[in-house]
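Researcher: For the record, we're logging two predictions in this thread. I'll number them. Prediction 1 follows.
Model: Prediction 1, sequence and structure:
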Amino acid sequence: PVDCSFSRGVCDWKQDADDDFDWNPADRDRGDGYYMAVPAFVGHKRDMGRLKLLLTDLKPKTSYCLIFTYRLAGERVGKLRVYLTNKKHTPVWEQDKGKDERWRTGKIEIFQEAETTNSITFESERGKGKTGEIAVDNVILISGLCPED
């Protein structure tokens, strides 16, 4: 598996220059590394922040699974979406609120057709709330289908 966690720096993460705000590193409670987050007080309602993971060397006609942890903490904090390069306008994954403030796991199947996916974008859309954060961590790409829970 390719581990694209933010504490390791193996993977090529880029902030989108055309969005409204950047994602920022945030320290973990227990101090083991950090994750990427958008605090709720940044920007205005409907502002977007995009963090892009550039992928190289994915083989065509192969399945991959993207696994990541995420958290939507706070009242009306906004939405988190994931886009793949070749399906730019429709998110392959979207979440708009957490039942609680815990970290949860997201999984996305990526099937490489002839057109390969060369990036994955995590997009945060600001909501009305002023407390909490939208956060992503532990991004891992494995080959093959996503494992069942």
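Researcher: Logged. Prediction 2.
Model: Prediction 2, sequence and structure:
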Amino acid sequence: MGDLLEDDLELRVGTLQLSTDNTNADNRRDNASESNRNKNELIANSSVLSGADSLSSSTSSFADARTEGTTNSRPENEEPERTVYPRYDVPFSSENIKDFFTFRKGVVENAIQDCITALLFPEDGEYLGSWLLTEITLWDNEKERIVLLTSRLVMTIKYDFIAMKQLDFKKTYLDDLDTIVIGELVYPPSSLVPRINGIATGVTTVVKDCVIDRLCRRPTGGDAEAKVFDPKYFEPRERNLRGVRLMWNKGEPLSMKTAWNPFSQDVPFLTFASHPIYWHKEGSVEDRSMYDMETFAQKLQRAIESMASSSCCIHHSPIVIQSYVGVTSLLHNKISLGFFKVRGKFSF
């Protein structure tokens, strides 16, 4: 009897030892896999930051929140797809958008044709497309720009839509690009811009509802008046806008001379977003593609991928706007100083 118990005990101990060895082996394999994943992520992040010789294609990432309203048939037990990007905040109202000179029929088309005729030459490569976009500068100022894309370069043009003439232009060759980032425009975590923007929007809303509306019509009841002071009007407001950034800085940070000079012409990147007219122009998405950053980004990515000599890294991630206080840019963007508009008795 004792011999049987002893043999049984030895068998159990041996089985326990075998199970422990298998567990340790599994843990080692899991740790190795996790280590490889972390290493690959680190390499990927490093290549994005430094503009290393890597090229990733992710055309499906161009789907944005503007198509969220379209629903597809799916089984009832299947979870609905989550929106990758936040909704756009529609810039300007449908009434104010008519003050833009570029909203008038034929103005943009004529201006683009003028730029193509005067500025593009055969050595610039095959013409791929043209857009009217919003350029966002280093100091977070929004400016109206015509953008021409060829197989060799991106041309950014400052155009006077009142006098219908070119003011300035800049050529950026695709061979010089080392990184392209496509994603949501965001501010650094320590930035005060979202808070200041929320306060400014809240004050504007209260003044409009409490002062202007009271002068135009009879005051409403107490409940409506209390609703005017809803704290949500003063909540921090992010950009809630997507953009594309073209970089040729080889992963190096900006010099102090460039970063703190608002008139510097040596900024090694360009940032574009959709023009405000995109959200108000009548017609289909194809009719409004001239004002759409997404269409420009798609064609730019295809142009990069078709270049065998390109070492540009295309990355889909948030685009950080290095603005921390932004009072001047907030004022500049609120009154649209970077756009040609009718402003009362004046136009500029």
